[in-house]
Design a protein that fits this description.
With 424 residues, the protein is α/β, with parallel strands linked by helices. Helix content is 29%, strand content 26%. It contains 13 helices and 21 strands. The strands form three sheets. Strands 4, 14, 15, 16, 17, 18, 19, 20 and 21 form a nine-stranded mixed beta sheet that branches. An eight-stranded parallel β-barrel has the order 5-6-7-8-9-11-12-13, surrounded by five helices. It has a three-stranded antiparallel beta sheet with strand order 1-2-3. The model has no long low-confidence stretch (mean pLDDT 95). Bound molecules: ligand LLP. Ligand LLP binds next to helix 11 and helix 12.
Length: 424
């Protein structure tokens, strides 16, 4: 684990985030808690920006990966763009000072209401995923006397070897429009009243550790754009989606942001297309940990469990995808190692962070860090088992601040209606 990559490293056997001892954060805000390194997020954002150099481009951070306002604000200040998939994400971006004019709207299920909000806000681009969606958008925009800027999300049918739940680029997936159908629709929709067709987009999946499928998809889109342009149509933008992998396990060596940029540039250079990319995980995953405290060790028959105060409701990835997350002690003071399952208190056998893992022989009250939890961590959390959700802390160099407070018991019942004096 190097600070270079993640923002987390050891100093005198103590885990630090940037320059702040993680233990001090745990003492101040309690556990479980998410901790993010601003420095790391910024350095990865800049790496993406640099990777595309002088080529016309916009990095549209995929808000779904981590939607904390502090992180969105950090990126907005860097003039980042954003990729959103709901009216709620649009609200968050605007709250954080992000610009709708630098935001693209993806997703298969945009409702009329969400389209109206995005049109009123002045969104940069709608990535449309079906003919019926396009028809509705044209109607809504015409009603508002606007012409909605649109890219068609093409399904390029490339196989990006990844977890089946996060692969999106094959024709059997719900995402995008099949290539030939998209090309035909691009032509047919030219005259529709509320539209300005200006681009093509794709997103072939997530946690993709091989650059070849990205290149294959982008080449297919560039070729389609060139065909459409030859027929006199406007194609201004190419949105290559997100999906670049990060390292979860020791030995994982995902492509660098620089190589990713190079590979994509090699495919678009000379096309005159403005490039958009939508990285989520690659910007924030390694910059975050979930900090947790050991509640107790428990031995049943021949099996050892370490029960911690975080659970699947706080970080769902291991339960949902069987995802691997490294677990590290916050203080490296235990020599002995054990093989154990690291589990939470939730009443589900699927509530685990690690199984059969070699871990330090921790005891009650020891602090552990679950690594690479900055993406698809807090955003997938819930109140299952009536557990208040954890706080989020943003570290910047030597300083840190609470970016979201821990939920209280009151928060758990907020919005619920105690008694009904009137039955409808
Ligand atoms: N653009 C679109 C249209 C997407 O659907 C996604 C992710 C992204 C960009 C960002 O992809 P990234 O760069 O983060 O790979 N919950 C799963 C990941 C779901 C990804 C969904 N779409 C996980 O925890 O692995």
């Amino acid at each position: 684990m190097s600070t270079e990559r993640s923002g987390f490293s050891y100093r005198n056997e103590e885990l630090i985030c940037d320059s702040v001892p993680v233990r001090a954060i745990a003492e101040a805000v309690g556990t479980p808690a998410y901790v993010y390194s601003s420095r790391q997020i910024l350095s990865r954002f800049r790496a993406f920006d640099r990777a595309f150099g002088a080529y016309p481009h916009l990095i549209c951070y995929a808000v779904k990966a981590n939607a904390n306002l502090g992180i969105l604000r950090l990126l907005a200040r860097q003039k980042s763009g954003f990729d959103i998939v709901s009216g709620g994400e649009l609200f968050r971006v605007l709250q954080a000072g992000g610009k709708a004019s630098r935001t693209v709207f993806s997703g298969v299920g945009k409702t009329a209401g969400e389209m109206d909000e995005a049109l009123r806000a002045g969104i940069l681009l709608f990535n449309c995923e079906s003919e019926s969606e396009l028809q509705l958008l044209s109607e809504r925009a015409a009603r508002l006397r606007q012409k909605a800027p649109v890219a068609l999300r093409v399904n390029p049918h490339v196989d990006a070897a990844t977890h089946p739940y996060i692969a999106t680029g094959l024709t059997e997936h719900k995402f995008g429009i099949e290539m030939a159908a998209a090309e035909d629709l691009y032509r047919r929709a030219q005259g529709w009243p509320g539209l300005r067709l200006i681009g093509l987009s794709c997103h072939i999946g997530s946690q993709i550790a091989d650059l070849a499928p990205f290149a294959e998809a982008v080449v297919k889109l560039v070729e389609m754009a060139e065909r459409l342009r030859r027929e006199g149509m406007v194609v201004e933008y190419l949105d290559a989606g997100g999906g670049l992998a990060v390292a979860y396990q020791p030995g994982d060596s995902p492509p660098s942001i620089r190589d990713y940029g190079r590979r994509i540039l090699a495919c678009v250079r000379g096309s005159g297309l403005k490039l958009l990319v939508e990285p989520g995980r690659a910007l924030v995953a390694e910059a975050g940990i979930l900090l947790t405290r050991v509640v107790r060790a428990k031995i049943t028959g021949r099996k050892r469990f370490i029960v911690v105060d975080a659970a699947m409701n706080d970080l769902l990835r291991p339960s949902l995808y069987g995802a691997y997350h490294e677990v590290r002690p916050v203080i490296r003071n235990r020599r002995e190692q054990v093989v154990a399952d690291l589990v939470g208190p939730v009443c589900e056998s699927g509530d685990f962070f690690a199984r059969g893992r070699r871990l330090p022989a921790v005891e009650a009250d020891d602090l552990l860090a679950i690594l690479t939890a900055g993406a698809y961590g807090f955003v997938l959390s819930s109140n299952y088992n009536a557990r208040p959700r954890p706080p989020e802390v943003l570290v910047a160099g030597r300083r840190w601040r609470l970016a979201r407070r821990r939920e209280t018991l009151r928060d758990l019942v907020r919005g619920e209606i105690r008694s009904t004096s009137r039955v409808r």
